[in-house]
Specification:
Radius of gyration of chain B: 24 Å
Number of domains of chain B: 2
Structural class of chain B: mainly alpha
Number of strands of chain B: 0
Largest interface: A-B, 107 and 99 residues
Subcellular location (chain A): Cell membrane
Helix content of chain A: over 70%
Oligomer: heterodimer
CATH topology of one domain in chain A: MetI-like fold
InterPro entries (chain A): ABC_transporter_permease, MetI-like, MetI-like_sf
Main location (chain A): membrane
Family (chain A): Belongs to the binding-protein-dependent transport system permease family.
Radius of gyration of chain A: 23 Å
Strand order of the largest sheet of chain A: 1-2
Shape of chain B: globular
Strand content of chain A: under 5%
CATH superfamily of the largest domain in chain B: MetI-like
CATH class of one domain in chain A: Mainly Alpha
Number of strands of chain A: 2
Largest sheet of chain B: none
Protein name (chain A): Sugar ABC transporter permease
Shape of chain A: globular
Order of helices and strands of chain A: HEEHHHHHHHHHHHH
CATH class of the largest domain in chain B: Mainly Alpha
Structural class of chain A: mainly alpha
Number of helices of chain B: 14
Strand content of chain B: under 5%
Number of helices of chain A: 13
Order of helices and strands of chain B: HHHHHHHHHHHHHH
Distance between the termini of chain A: 40 Å
CATH superfamily of one domain in chain A: MetI-like
Chain lengths: ~290, ~280
Protein backbone atom coordinates (compact mmCIF):
# COMPACT_ATOMS: atom_id res chain seq x y z
CA UNK A 1 0.00 0.00 0.00
CA UNK A 2 2.34 2.68 -1.23
CA UNK A 3 -0.26 5.41 -1.26
CA UNK A 4 -1.21 4.77 2.35
CA UNK A 5 2.45 4.97 3.40
CA UNK A 6 2.85 8.26 1.66
CA UNK A 7 -0.35 9.74 3.05
CA UNK A 8 1.07 11.02 6.36
CA UNK A 9 3.91 12.74 4.53
CA UNK A 10 1.54 14.36 2.03
CA UNK A 11 -0.50 15.68 4.96
CA UNK A 12 2.64 16.92 6.70
CA UNK A 13 4.42 18.36 3.70
CA UNK A 14 3.02 21.93 3.50
CA UNK A 15 3.48 22.62 7.22
CA UNK A 16 6.86 20.94 7.55
CA UNK A 17 8.23 22.64 4.44
CA UNK A 18 7.08 25.93 5.97
CA UNK A 19 8.75 25.21 9.30
CA UNK A 20 11.98 23.95 7.73
CA UNK A 21 12.31 26.85 5.26
CA UNK A 22 11.12 29.71 7.47
CA UNK A 23 12.13 28.56 10.96
CA UNK A 24 14.98 26.07 10.67
CA UNK A 25 16.87 27.32 7.60
CA UNK A 26 17.22 30.87 9.01
CA UNK A 27 19.30 29.43 11.87
CA UNK A 28 21.75 28.13 9.26
CA UNK A 29 21.58 31.39 7.34
CA UNK A 30 22.44 33.32 10.50
CA UNK A 31 25.49 31.17 11.20
CA UNK A 32 26.67 31.18 7.57
CA UNK A 33 25.92 34.87 7.09
CA UNK A 34 27.78 35.81 10.25
CA UNK A 35 30.93 34.59 8.51
CA UNK A 36 30.52 36.76 5.44
CA UNK A 37 31.45 40.33 4.79
CA UNK A 38 30.07 42.72 2.22
CA UNK A 39 32.45 44.89 0.27
CA UNK A 40 31.61 48.43 -0.80
CA UNK A 41 30.69 46.99 -4.19
CA UNK A 42 28.15 44.74 -2.53
CA UNK A 43 30.06 41.49 -3.13
CA UNK A 44 29.80 38.79 -0.50
CA UNK A 45 32.95 37.11 0.68
CA UNK A 46 33.83 34.56 3.34
CA UNK A 47 35.58 36.22 6.26
CA UNK A 48 35.54 33.43 8.85
CA UNK A 49 35.18 34.66 12.39
CA UNK A 50 36.20 38.22 11.55
CA UNK A 51 32.74 39.64 12.36
CA UNK A 52 32.86 38.06 15.81
CA UNK A 53 36.45 39.16 16.38
CA UNK A 54 35.43 42.68 15.47
CA UNK A 55 32.35 42.53 17.71
CA UNK A 56 34.44 41.52 20.70
CA UNK A 57 36.64 44.60 20.31
CA UNK A 58 33.65 46.88 19.76
CA UNK A 59 32.70 48.94 22.82
CA UNK A 60 29.20 49.44 21.47
CA UNK A 61 28.64 45.67 21.39
CA UNK A 62 29.85 45.22 24.96
CA UNK A 63 27.70 48.06 26.19
CA UNK A 64 24.70 46.59 24.36
CA UNK A 65 25.40 43.14 25.83
CA UNK A 66 25.58 44.74 29.27
CA UNK A 67 22.25 46.52 28.75
CA UNK A 68 20.64 43.28 27.55
CA UNK A 69 21.95 41.31 30.55
CA UNK A 70 20.94 44.01 33.03
CA UNK A 71 17.49 44.21 31.45
CA UNK A 72 17.06 40.44 31.74
CA UNK A 73 18.47 40.19 35.25
CA UNK A 74 15.81 42.63 36.41
CA UNK A 75 12.79 41.91 34.25
CA UNK A 76 12.64 38.11 34.44
CA UNK A 77 12.67 37.70 38.23
CA UNK A 78 10.42 40.77 38.50
CA UNK A 79 7.81 39.40 36.10
CA UNK A 80 7.93 36.00 37.78
CA UNK A 81 7.42 37.58 41.20
CA UNK A 82 4.59 39.84 40.05
CA UNK A 83 2.90 37.02 38.12
CA UNK A 84 3.17 34.69 41.13
CA UNK A 85 1.74 37.33 43.46
CA UNK A 86 -1.15 37.88 41.04
CA UNK A 87 -1.76 34.14 40.74
CA UNK A 88 -1.91 33.75 44.53
CA UNK A 89 -4.29 36.72 44.78
CA UNK A 90 -6.74 35.33 42.22
CA UNK A 91 -6.47 31.69 43.37
CA UNK A 92 -10.03 31.78 44.73
CA UNK A 93 -13.54 30.81 43.85
CA UNK A 94 -16.24 33.25 42.87
CA UNK A 95 -17.70 35.60 40.35
CA UNK A 96 -15.80 38.67 41.59
CA UNK A 97 -12.45 36.89 41.31
CA UNK A 98 -13.31 35.85 37.77
CA UNK A 99 -13.82 39.51 36.89
CA UNK A 100 -10.47 40.53 38.43
CA UNK A 101 -8.73 37.75 36.51
CA UNK A 102 -10.20 39.05 33.29
CA UNK A 103 -9.03 42.61 34.00
CA UNK A 104 -5.51 41.42 34.89
CA UNK A 105 -5.07 39.44 31.67
CA UNK A 106 -6.46 42.24 29.47
CA UNK A 107 -2.99 43.62 28.52
CA UNK A 108 -2.00 40.29 26.95
CA UNK A 109 -4.45 41.15 24.16
CA UNK A 110 -2.52 44.38 23.50
CA UNK A 111 0.49 43.87 21.24
CA UNK A 112 3.93 44.84 22.52
CA UNK A 113 4.13 47.57 19.90
CA UNK A 114 0.79 49.09 20.84
CA UNK A 115 1.68 48.86 24.55
CA UNK A 116 4.74 50.95 23.79
CA UNK A 117 2.67 53.51 21.86
CA UNK A 118 0.03 53.56 24.61
CA UNK A 119 2.62 54.31 27.31
CA UNK A 120 4.47 56.73 25.08
CA UNK A 121 1.26 58.77 25.11
CA UNK A 122 0.27 58.00 28.71
CA UNK A 123 3.66 59.08 30.11
CA UNK A 124 4.04 62.12 27.82
CA UNK A 125 4.11 65.41 29.67
CA UNK A 126 1.66 67.19 27.35
CA UNK A 127 -0.54 64.39 26.08
CA UNK A 128 -0.89 61.97 28.97
CA UNK A 129 -2.24 62.16 32.49
CA UNK A 130 0.55 60.48 34.44
CA UNK A 131 2.91 63.42 34.91
CA UNK A 132 -0.02 65.57 35.96
CA UNK A 133 -0.80 62.94 38.57
CA UNK A 134 2.82 62.89 39.78
CA UNK A 135 2.77 66.71 40.08
CA UNK A 136 -0.51 66.54 41.92
CA UNK A 137 0.76 64.11 44.57
CA UNK A 138 3.97 66.12 44.87
CA UNK A 139 6.53 63.83 43.23
CA UNK A 140 6.90 66.08 40.20
CA UNK A 141 6.95 65.31 36.47
CA UNK A 142 9.45 62.73 35.19
CA UNK A 143 11.02 62.28 31.76
CA UNK A 144 10.69 58.44 31.83
CA UNK A 145 11.91 56.96 28.53
CA UNK A 146 13.54 60.26 27.60
CA UNK A 147 15.86 60.16 30.60
CA UNK A 148 19.04 58.10 30.52
CA UNK A 149 18.60 56.85 34.07
CA UNK A 150 14.91 56.03 33.79
CA UNK A 151 14.57 54.70 30.24
CA UNK A 152 15.43 51.05 30.89
CA UNK A 153 13.24 50.99 33.99
CA UNK A 154 10.36 52.51 32.03
CA UNK A 155 10.63 49.81 29.36
CA UNK A 156 10.74 47.14 32.08
CA UNK A 157 7.59 48.65 33.57
CA UNK A 158 5.77 48.65 30.23
CA UNK A 159 6.78 45.05 29.47
CA UNK A 160 5.68 43.97 32.94
CA UNK A 161 2.33 45.71 32.55
CA UNK A 162 1.83 43.68 29.39
CA UNK A 163 3.37 40.39 30.51
CA UNK A 164 2.46 39.81 34.16
CA UNK A 165 -1.15 38.73 33.54
CA UNK A 166 -0.05 36.35 30.80
CA UNK A 167 2.49 34.55 32.98
CA UNK A 168 0.01 34.60 35.85
CA UNK A 169 -2.17 32.20 33.84
CA UNK A 170 0.52 29.50 33.76
CA UNK A 171 1.20 29.85 37.50
CA UNK A 172 -2.51 29.78 38.25
CA UNK A 173 -2.78 26.51 36.32
CA UNK A 174 0.10 25.26 38.46
CA UNK A 175 -1.68 26.24 41.68
CA UNK A 176 -4.81 24.41 40.55
CA UNK A 177 -2.81 21.26 39.88
CA UNK A 178 -1.62 21.02 43.50
CA UNK A 179 -3.84 18.31 44.98
CA UNK A 180 -6.11 19.84 47.62
CA UNK A 181 -5.47 16.76 49.81
CA UNK A 182 -1.87 17.92 50.27
CA UNK A 183 -2.97 21.32 51.53
CA UNK A 184 -5.61 19.76 53.76
CA UNK A 185 -3.08 17.40 55.29
CA UNK A 186 -0.84 20.36 56.14
CA UNK A 187 -3.85 22.17 57.59
CA UNK A 188 -4.71 19.19 59.84
CA UNK A 189 -1.08 19.07 60.97
CA UNK A 190 -1.59 22.62 62.22
CA UNK A 191 0.61 24.43 59.69
CA UNK A 192 0.22 28.23 59.61
CA UNK A 193 -0.66 29.90 56.29
CA UNK A 194 2.98 30.99 55.92
CA UNK A 195 4.27 27.47 56.63
CA UNK A 196 1.81 26.03 54.13
CA UNK A 197 2.96 28.52 51.51
CA UNK A 198 6.68 27.98 52.12
CA UNK A 199 6.68 24.22 52.73
CA UNK A 200 3.82 23.02 50.50
CA UNK A 201 2.89 25.53 47.80
CA UNK A 202 6.36 26.81 46.95
CA UNK A 203 8.10 23.44 46.45
CA UNK A 204 5.17 22.14 44.39
CA UNK A 205 5.25 25.27 42.23
CA UNK A 206 8.90 24.85 41.30
CA UNK A 207 8.20 23.42 37.88
CA UNK A 208 5.62 25.95 36.65
CA UNK A 209 7.79 28.76 38.07
CA UNK A 210 10.85 27.43 36.27
CA UNK A 211 8.84 27.15 33.07
CA UNK A 212 7.67 30.78 33.32
CA UNK A 213 11.17 32.03 34.14
CA UNK A 214 12.74 30.19 31.22
CA UNK A 215 10.05 31.01 28.63
CA UNK A 216 9.97 34.65 29.74
CA UNK A 217 13.76 34.90 29.49
CA UNK A 218 13.66 33.61 25.89
CA UNK A 219 11.22 36.38 24.99
CA UNK A 220 13.02 39.14 26.86
CA UNK A 221 16.42 38.39 25.33
CA UNK A 222 14.78 39.38 22.03
CA UNK A 223 13.10 42.54 23.33
CA UNK A 224 12.74 44.96 20.43
CA UNK A 225 9.50 46.83 19.66
CA UNK A 226 9.38 49.26 22.64
CA UNK A 227 13.05 50.13 22.09
CA UNK A 228 12.43 50.84 18.42
CA UNK A 229 9.23 52.79 19.07
CA UNK A 230 10.07 54.77 22.22
CA UNK A 231 13.81 55.19 22.69
CA UNK A 232 15.72 54.21 19.52
CA UNK A 233 18.23 52.63 21.89
CA UNK A 234 18.83 55.86 23.75
CA UNK A 235 19.24 58.08 25.61
CA UNK A 236 23.02 57.56 25.25
CA UNK A 237 22.67 53.86 24.47
CA UNK A 238 20.98 53.13 27.80
CA UNK A 239 18.31 50.94 26.16
CA UNK A 240 20.27 49.67 23.16
CA UNK A 241 19.59 45.95 23.59
CA UNK A 242 21.26 43.37 21.32
CA UNK A 243 18.19 42.80 19.12
CA UNK A 244 18.08 46.53 18.40
CA UNK A 245 21.82 46.47 17.61
CA UNK A 246 21.20 43.63 15.16
CA UNK A 247 18.48 45.70 13.49
CA UNK A 248 20.61 48.88 13.37
CA UNK A 249 23.62 47.04 11.97
CA UNK A 250 21.61 45.76 9.02
CA UNK A 251 19.32 48.68 8.27
CA UNK A 252 21.19 51.78 9.38
CA UNK A 253 24.82 50.74 8.90
CA UNK A 254 24.23 48.20 6.09
CA UNK A 255 26.55 45.77 7.85
CA UNK A 256 24.70 42.50 7.38
CA UNK A 257 27.65 40.44 8.65
CA UNK A 258 27.63 42.22 11.99
CA UNK A 259 23.84 41.97 12.20
CA UNK A 260 23.93 38.22 11.60
CA UNK A 261 26.83 37.74 14.01
CA UNK A 262 24.72 39.37 16.74
CA UNK A 263 21.72 37.29 15.62
CA UNK A 264 23.84 34.14 15.86
CA UNK A 265 24.89 34.98 19.41
CA UNK A 266 21.23 35.62 20.35
CA UNK A 267 20.14 32.41 18.62
CA UNK A 268 22.69 30.35 20.57
CA UNK A 269 21.39 31.86 23.81
CA UNK A 270 17.79 31.14 22.77
CA UNK A 271 18.54 27.55 21.73
CA UNK A 272 20.16 26.88 25.10
CA UNK A 273 17.04 28.31 26.76
CA UNK A 274 14.75 26.15 24.58
CA UNK A 275 16.80 23.06 25.46
CA UNK A 276 16.33 23.92 29.15
CA UNK A 277 12.61 24.34 28.55
CA UNK A 278 12.35 20.94 26.84
CA UNK A 279 14.18 19.25 29.72
CA UNK A 280 11.81 20.92 32.17
CA UNK A 281 8.73 19.71 30.32
CA UNK A 282 10.07 16.16 30.10
CA UNK A 283 11.34 15.84 33.65
CA UNK A 284 9.48 13.13 35.62
CA UNK A 285 8.54 15.46 38.48
CA UNK A 286 5.09 16.08 37.09
CA UNK A 287 3.05 18.44 39.22
CA UNK A 288 2.18 20.86 36.46
CA UNK A 289 -1.10 20.50 34.61
CA UNK B 1 -6.71 26.12 51.95
CA UNK B 2 -8.51 28.81 50.04
CA UNK B 3 -11.61 28.56 52.20
CA UNK B 4 -9.93 29.08 55.55
CA UNK B 5 -8.28 32.23 54.26
CA UNK B 6 -11.56 33.42 52.82
CA UNK B 7 -13.16 33.26 56.28
CA UNK B 8 -10.71 35.76 57.75
CA UNK B 9 -12.32 39.16 57.02
CA UNK B 10 -9.05 41.09 57.25
CA UNK B 11 -7.40 38.77 54.71
CA UNK B 12 -10.39 39.15 52.41
CA UNK B 13 -10.24 42.95 52.65
CA UNK B 14 -6.49 42.93 51.99
CA UNK B 15 -6.87 40.59 49.03
CA UNK B 16 -9.60 42.60 47.37
CA UNK B 17 -7.88 45.90 48.20
CA UNK B 18 -4.66 44.73 46.55
CA UNK B 19 -6.54 43.29 43.58
CA UNK B 20 -8.50 46.51 43.07
CA UNK B 21 -5.34 48.63 43.05
CA UNK B 22 -3.61 46.25 40.63
CA UNK B 23 -6.63 45.98 38.35
CA UNK B 24 -6.88 49.77 38.32
CA UNK B 25 -3.19 50.10 37.36
CA UNK B 26 -3.76 47.63 34.53
CA UNK B 27 -6.96 49.14 33.18
CA UNK B 28 -6.26 52.85 33.75
CA UNK B 29 -4.02 53.45 30.69
CA UNK B 30 -6.46 51.59 28.43
CA UNK B 31 -9.49 53.44 29.77
CA UNK B 32 -7.67 56.77 29.54
CA UNK B 33 -6.79 56.14 25.89
CA UNK B 34 -10.35 55.09 25.02
CA UNK B 35 -11.73 58.30 26.54
CA UNK B 36 -8.95 60.49 25.11
CA UNK B 37 -9.71 59.20 21.62
CA UNK B 38 -13.22 60.64 22.01
CA UNK B 39 -11.95 64.09 22.98
CA UNK B 40 -12.39 67.16 20.79
CA UNK B 41 -9.07 68.02 19.07
CA UNK B 42 -8.78 71.29 21.05
CA UNK B 43 -8.72 69.43 24.38
CA UNK B 44 -5.93 66.98 23.52
CA UNK B 45 -3.10 68.82 25.27
CA UNK B 46 -3.23 68.40 29.03
CA UNK B 47 -0.89 70.75 30.91
CA UNK B 48 0.45 68.91 33.98
CA UNK B 49 -0.75 71.75 36.22
CA UNK B 50 -4.37 71.10 35.31
CA UNK B 51 -4.58 67.55 36.63
CA UNK B 52 -8.06 66.62 37.78
CA UNK B 53 -11.03 64.58 36.70
CA UNK B 54 -11.08 66.54 33.41
CA UNK B 55 -7.75 64.84 32.64
CA UNK B 56 -9.75 61.66 32.13
CA UNK B 57 -13.24 62.77 31.19
CA UNK B 58 -13.64 64.84 28.01
CA UNK B 59 -16.01 67.84 28.13
CA UNK B 60 -17.94 66.28 25.30
CA UNK B 61 -17.60 62.99 23.44
CA UNK B 62 -17.00 63.16 19.71
CA UNK B 63 -16.07 60.74 16.94
CA UNK B 64 -14.19 63.49 15.06
CA UNK B 65 -10.82 61.81 15.63
CA UNK B 66 -12.13 58.58 14.11
CA UNK B 67 -13.72 60.38 11.19
CA UNK B 68 -10.45 62.20 10.46
CA UNK B 69 -8.65 58.82 10.33
CA UNK B 70 -10.52 57.87 7.21
CA UNK B 71 -8.68 60.47 5.14
CA UNK B 72 -5.13 59.56 6.23
CA UNK B 73 -2.88 56.54 5.75
CA UNK B 74 -4.82 54.47 8.27
CA UNK B 75 -7.42 52.89 5.94
CA UNK B 76 -4.58 51.49 3.82
CA UNK B 77 -2.89 50.09 6.93
CA UNK B 78 -6.17 48.52 8.06
CA UNK B 79 -6.59 47.00 4.63
CA UNK B 80 -3.04 45.63 4.61
CA UNK B 81 -3.38 44.15 8.09
CA UNK B 82 -6.74 42.59 7.24
CA UNK B 83 -5.49 41.01 4.01
CA UNK B 84 -2.43 39.62 5.75
CA UNK B 85 -4.28 38.38 8.86
CA UNK B 86 -7.26 36.82 7.08
CA UNK B 87 -5.12 35.07 4.44
CA UNK B 88 -2.88 33.68 7.17
CA UNK B 89 -5.90 32.36 9.10
CA UNK B 90 -7.36 30.61 6.04
CA UNK B 91 -4.15 28.96 4.86
CA UNK B 92 -2.83 28.44 8.37
CA UNK B 93 -5.91 26.47 9.42
CA UNK B 94 -5.68 24.09 6.45
CA UNK B 95 -1.92 23.57 6.50
CA UNK B 96 -1.55 23.13 10.28
CA UNK B 97 -4.69 21.04 10.74
CA UNK B 98 -3.48 18.64 8.03
CA UNK B 99 -0.15 18.26 9.82
CA UNK B 100 -1.83 17.90 13.22
CA UNK B 101 -4.04 15.17 11.78
CA UNK B 102 -1.04 13.31 10.37
CA UNK B 103 0.67 13.33 13.78
CA UNK B 104 -2.50 12.08 15.49
CA UNK B 105 -3.82 9.49 13.04
CA UNK B 106 -0.75 7.87 11.49
CA UNK B 107 2.34 6.03 12.61
CA UNK B 108 5.31 6.72 10.39
CA UNK B 109 9.09 6.83 10.47
CA UNK B 110 10.63 9.89 12.04
CA UNK B 111 7.40 10.92 13.72
CA UNK B 112 8.99 11.80 17.06
CA UNK B 113 11.81 13.74 15.47
CA UNK B 114 9.40 15.72 13.28
CA UNK B 115 7.17 16.43 16.25
CA UNK B 116 10.20 17.70 18.16
CA UNK B 117 10.81 20.13 15.28
CA UNK B 118 7.23 21.33 15.67
CA UNK B 119 7.62 21.90 19.41
CA UNK B 120 11.00 23.63 19.12
CA UNK B 121 9.59 25.88 16.39
CA UNK B 122 7.09 27.39 18.79
CA UNK B 123 9.33 27.47 21.83
CA UNK B 124 11.87 29.52 19.94
CA UNK B 125 10.38 33.03 19.79
CA UNK B 126 9.98 34.20 16.20
CA UNK B 127 12.07 37.33 16.83
CA UNK B 128 15.16 35.13 17.14
CA UNK B 129 15.25 34.49 13.40
CA UNK B 130 13.93 37.79 12.04
CA UNK B 131 17.28 39.02 10.69
CA UNK B 132 18.32 35.80 8.88
CA UNK B 133 14.74 35.34 7.65
CA UNK B 134 15.03 38.79 6.14
CA UNK B 135 18.15 37.65 4.29
CA UNK B 136 16.19 34.68 2.94
CA UNK B 137 13.15 36.72 1.94
CA UNK B 138 15.17 39.42 0.23
CA UNK B 139 17.11 36.68 -1.57
CA UNK B 140 13.78 35.45 -2.92
CA UNK B 141 12.95 39.02 -3.95
CA UNK B 142 9.86 39.10 -1.74
CA UNK B 143 10.55 42.21 0.36
CA UNK B 144 7.72 44.74 0.37
CA UNK B 145 4.99 42.34 -0.67
CA UNK B 146 2.08 40.54 0.96
CA UNK B 147 3.97 37.30 0.29
CA UNK B 148 6.75 38.36 2.64
CA UNK B 149 4.24 39.08 5.40
CA UNK B 150 2.03 36.01 4.92
CA UNK B 151 3.96 32.96 3.70
CA UNK B 152 6.55 32.67 6.53
CA UNK B 153 3.72 32.84 9.08
CA UNK B 154 1.41 30.14 7.68
CA UNK B 155 3.10 27.07 9.19
CA UNK B 156 2.75 27.44 12.96
CA UNK B 157 4.04 24.86 15.44
CA UNK B 158 1.64 25.90 18.19
CA UNK B 159 -1.39 25.38 15.91
CA UNK B 160 -0.09 22.00 14.68
CA UNK B 161 0.32 21.04 18.34
CA UNK B 162 -3.24 22.10 19.24
CA UNK B 163 -4.77 20.18 16.32
CA UNK B 164 -2.68 17.12 17.11
CA UNK B 165 -3.91 17.19 20.71
CA UNK B 166 -7.51 17.41 19.56
CA UNK B 167 -7.34 14.79 16.81
CA UNK B 168 -5.48 12.41 19.14
CA UNK B 169 -8.43 12.60 21.54
CA UNK B 170 -10.73 11.03 18.92
CA UNK B 171 -10.51 7.21 19.03
CA UNK B 172 -8.65 5.81 16.03
CA UNK B 173 -11.48 3.31 15.45
CA UNK B 174 -13.56 6.24 14.39
CA UNK B 175 -11.22 6.97 11.49
CA UNK B 176 -10.74 3.25 10.73
CA UNK B 177 -14.50 2.72 10.45
CA UNK B 178 -14.69 5.38 7.76
CA UNK B 179 -11.68 3.77 6.06
CA UNK B 180 -13.50 0.46 5.89
CA UNK B 181 -16.40 2.26 4.26
CA UNK B 182 -13.97 3.29 1.53
CA UNK B 183 -13.43 6.93 2.44
CA UNK B 184 -10.08 8.49 1.52
CA UNK B 185 -7.94 9.99 4.29
CA UNK B 186 -8.46 13.44 2.82
CA UNK B 187 -12.23 12.89 2.96
CA UNK B 188 -11.98 11.67 6.57
CA UNK B 189 -9.92 14.74 7.53
CA UNK B 190 -12.19 17.23 5.77
CA UNK B 191 -15.63 15.80 6.53
CA UNK B 192 -15.22 13.81 9.74
CA UNK B 193 -12.25 15.14 11.75
CA UNK B 194 -12.43 18.85 10.93
CA UNK B 195 -16.14 19.36 11.70
CA UNK B 196 -15.59 17.78 15.13
CA UNK B 197 -12.70 20.10 15.92
CA UNK B 198 -14.56 23.40 15.85
CA UNK B 199 -13.27 24.58 19.28
CA UNK B 200 -9.70 24.05 18.06
CA UNK B 201 -10.53 25.76 14.77
CA UNK B 202 -11.92 28.75 16.67
CA UNK B 203 -8.92 29.14 19.00
CA UNK B 204 -6.45 28.53 16.20
CA UNK B 205 -8.13 31.15 14.04
CA UNK B 206 -7.83 33.64 16.87
CA UNK B 207 -4.18 32.75 17.50
CA UNK B 208 -3.28 33.03 13.83
CA UNK B 209 -5.21 36.28 13.51
CA UNK B 210 -3.53 37.81 16.57
CA UNK B 211 -0.08 36.57 15.52
CA UNK B 212 -0.44 38.71 12.41
CA UNK B 213 -2.48 41.58 13.83
CA UNK B 214 0.06 42.06 16.65
CA UNK B 215 3.22 41.50 14.71
CA UNK B 216 5.57 44.45 14.48
CA UNK B 217 9.23 43.46 14.17
CA UNK B 218 8.83 41.33 11.05
CA UNK B 219 6.70 43.87 9.11
CA UNK B 220 9.13 46.68 10.02
CA UNK B 221 11.99 44.61 8.62
CA UNK B 222 10.36 42.86 5.66
CA UNK B 223 7.81 45.40 4.41
CA UNK B 224 8.91 48.88 5.42
CA UNK B 225 7.45 50.47 2.28
CA UNK B 226 4.47 52.70 3.21
CA UNK B 227 2.31 50.88 0.63
CA UNK B 228 2.64 47.69 2.68
CA UNK B 229 2.63 49.22 6.16
CA UNK B 230 0.41 47.21 8.49
CA UNK B 231 -1.52 48.81 11.35
CA UNK B 232 1.19 48.34 13.99
CA UNK B 233 3.85 49.82 11.76
CA UNK B 234 1.70 52.75 10.65
CA UNK B 235 0.85 53.64 14.27
CA UNK B 236 4.43 53.29 15.48
CA UNK B 237 5.57 55.65 12.72
CA UNK B 238 3.00 58.23 13.73
CA UNK B 239 4.26 58.47 17.30
CA UNK B 240 7.77 59.26 16.12
CA UNK B 241 7.17 61.69 13.33
CA UNK B 242 6.71 65.34 14.12
CA UNK B 243 3.04 65.78 13.59
CA UNK B 244 0.01 67.48 15.03
CA UNK B 245 -2.71 64.91 14.54
CA UNK B 246 -2.50 63.52 18.08
CA UNK B 247 -6.25 62.91 18.09
CA UNK B 248 -5.78 60.65 15.07
CA UNK B 249 -3.01 58.75 16.84
CA UNK B 250 -5.23 58.26 19.92
CA UNK B 251 -8.09 57.02 17.76
CA UNK B 252 -6.01 54.68 15.59
CA UNK B 253 -4.19 53.19 18.60
CA UNK B 254 -7.44 52.64 20.45
CA UNK B 255 -9.04 51.07 17.39
CA UNK B 256 -6.08 48.74 16.85
CA UNK B 257 -6.18 47.68 20.52
CA UNK B 258 -9.93 47.02 20.36
CA UNK B 259 -9.70 44.94 17.18
CA UNK B 260 -7.21 42.68 18.96
CA UNK B 261 -9.04 42.67 22.28
CA UNK B 262 -12.66 42.02 21.28
CA UNK B 263 -12.12 38.54 19.79
CA UNK B 264 -9.85 37.78 22.75
CA UNK B 265 -12.62 38.70 25.19
CA UNK B 266 -15.21 36.68 23.30
CA UNK B 267 -13.04 33.58 23.29
CA UNK B 268 -10.82 34.00 26.33
CA UNK B 269 -11.88 30.74 27.99
CA UNK B 270 -10.93 28.53 25.03
CA UNK B 271 -7.94 30.67 24.28
CA UNK B 272 -6.43 30.51 27.76
CA UNK B 273 -6.95 26.74 28.01
CA UNK B 274 -5.16 26.14 24.70
CA UNK B 275 -2.34 28.47 25.61
CA UNK B 276 -1.66 26.63 28.86
CA UNK B 277 -1.86 23.22 27.21
CA UNK B 278 0.84 24.37 24.79
CA UNK B 279 3.06 25.69 27.56
CA UNK B 280 2.73 22.95 30.17
CA UNK B 281 1.57 19.74 28.62
Amino acid sequence: MLSSRLTPFLFLAPALIGLVVFRLAPIGIAVAGSMTGTSLMGDLSFVGLENFAYLFTDAEFWSSLQVTLLFNLIINPLQLAVAFALALLVFQQGRAIWFYRLLLVLPMAVSTGLSAVLFGLFLDGNLGPFNGFLEWIGIGAQAFHRNQDQALGTLIGIATWKGAGYWMLFLLAGLYSIPSSVQEAALIDGATPWQRFRLVTLPLMRKPMAFVLVADTAINFLFFAPVYILTSGGPSGSTSVLMYQAYLSAFTFSDLGRSLAISTILLMIILIIVALELRLLRSPEDHAA
Amino acid sequence: MTETIARNPLAVALRYGALSILAFAVVCPLAWLALASLRPQAEIFQPVSEFGWRTFVPSRLTLDNYRALMSGDFPLALRNSSIVAVTTVVFGLVVNALAGFAFAAFDFRGKNLLFLLVIVSFMMPFEAIVMPLYVLISGLGWTNSYKALIIPEVANGMIIFLFRQFFASIPKDFYEAARVDGASWLYIWAFIAMPLSWPTIATSSLMLFLSQWDSFFWPVVAASDPDYAVVQVAIARNINFEQNDWGGLFASTNLAILIGMIPFLLMQRFYVRSLISGGIK
